[in-house]
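Minutes, project check-in

Agenda point 3 was the complex the collaborators sent over. CS summarized: two entities, 507 residues total, and the question is how they sit relative to each other. Sequences were read into the notes so everyone works from the same version.
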Amino acid sequence: MNIMPQTIVTPEKPRIMAERPIKIVARDVNVYYGEKQAIKNVSIGIPDRAVSAFIGPSGCGKSTFLRAINRMNDTIPTCRMTGEIAIDGKNVYDRDVDVVQLRARVGMVFQKPNPFPKSIFENVAYGPRIHGLARNKSDLEDIVVTSLKRTSLFEEVKDRLGHSGTSLSGGQQQRLCIARAIAVNPEAILMDEPCSSLDPIATAKIEELIDELRQNFCIVIVTHSMQQAARVSQLAAFFHLGHLVEFGDTDEIFTAPREKRTQDYITGRFG
Amino acid sequence: MSDHIVKSYDDDLAALKTMLAQMGGLAEEQLANAIYAIARRDTQIADKVIAGDAKIDAFERQIEEKAILTIAKRQPMARDLREIMVAIRVASDLERIGDLAKNTAKRTHAISEALPRKLISGLTRMGNLAQEQLRTILDAYAHTDAEKAIAVWRADEEIDSIYNSIFRELLTYMMEDPRMIGLCTHLLFGAKNMERIGDHTTNIAENIYYLVHGKPILEERPKKDATSITSIAKPR
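CS then shared the predicted structure for the full assembly.
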């Protein structure tokens, strides 16, 4: 099925868009929590191998929209959605889509690091094992080591892979969660305020990691820190009251945004 | 533009603007006095201009400090960021304008002869025009008026063309009477200073445009200063 949305909000001269294929396409997405409409008619095209940041005040719908991408909202009984979200042209809300498979393809990292109460090794090995990505034990070990190395965690934990994941520091736990997400070789990684509970050093490490991961993954990050959005993303989307107000080159959004609402928000003028 | 949630942020930006307004006023005064001094060969006024330049320099330092501190404290974005960057740049143009006024005033000491009225009138005309341009651009900056800034930007052509004619006129004098060379050289430098001041006002104009629109003026500025490519014939 080929979904080409009529109204994708894209920048006039989408530098990144011209160089990268569009990975995720949302068309006319509406999300409701019971009676309350949280997302209003959002259409957007998110490029592959780049970081797109969602910014906006609390309750603007950015997290809801992020969670709609890998159907995390399905777990909320009152939540209802209309419209389409396609990854590589395939609507993730089609009936034949296996949600467990989908969440492996689209990994997620949350605000609070949430390692499983298992060993560091098991935290990373769990996904590849249940998805059958390793043929044998040494395959699995390879995946775990590679994933830990890619998140720069290996050197720090190589002598205690059997220790509990929860014994690590907050920043390490978060990197463990990212290692866990990339171990199943996802196509996209969604991050919901991944640094909000971390100190500046741990935050810098995560940002460095995001910068490296974007060579291979489509990354979407929700963040309350404007500076972080400016630092890590190539594209930025501003949400307000459930609407997607503006989506464009990060460089432009933070120096000369087109919309007054964007300008007011990022300069700290929202009353 | 509405206010920031954090009030003291507005105070920081307002303080920058106030300092720039004061600095601009000072630069205007210095320029007016420099033109008066050289036209009347009033060395007392000239000395006042020379001494006054330190004040302008001090303003530039203060503005720079305030701007850097604001960037560090507030991490400004979008228009706020442009506002601060433009403040730094405008301060540096005003500082240069101050230097050029001082340099013009200094030459008063070197000119002891009575000046032919015709010679000095060209320079004062240029000076007045530069002064007018400076006044208008400071007004445009105070009101963040990009259209007015563009008008100043275009009008610089006129200063350039007067400079061309003064240049030719002074050359003729020097060829006619080599004793005039010393005097004419000083006047020529004075005129060049006014032409440079005109250029600095166009820089400020470009910055106001950038502040308002978030992008630079793309068209080429009309230029009439042809003196640098004029060859000078040997006197026979």
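Noted in discussion: The radius of gyration of chain A is 18 Å.
Follow-up: revisit at the next meeting once the mutant set is ready.
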